[in-house]
Amino acid sequence: MGALLALIVSITTLSWAWFSAARNEYKSSQSTEAADREKARLAVIRSNLQSFYIEGGSLLEKPVPQGASAEVIAQYTEEAGAWATKANTWIGTELGMAASARFVDRTAYPSRLMTGVDPAVSNAKMFIADLRQNLAKMIETNAWDAGGAK
After folding, report:
1. What is the pLDDT of residues 22-46, one digit of tens each?
2. Which of 17, 24, 96, 131 has its CA 20 to 30 A from that of 72?
3. What gap in Å lies between CA 46 and CA 105, rounded to an integer?
């Protein structure tokens, strides 16, 4: 009788151990899949933010000659606004409203003008430079990513 009881206890213990190991392996695989998905999602976000940063840099470096016509100045300021709108729309849609607000926040940057440049061009270039600084901070940390809670 004792041998039968010992056999039942052994089988029960082995069954529980097998079930527990299988359950832990399943949980581990789910956790790894979730982590891999999150890494991939963050890589896409970082890539898009970096693309906006590069586009802004190209626009910032675009020469606008001193004494340029009103049309050239208007075209440049429109390009700057279009770049900012495109980036902000993507950020707001993909990362959430807090990230969008962070992107356009210029309170940390003093008002300034570039010398030897039309004031409208100077303002546009400083606008781009300020937003690129914000992008750099967003690229360096994912604190502004709302994740699934956009």
Report:
1. 676 666 666 788 888 888 989 999 9
2. 131
3. 19
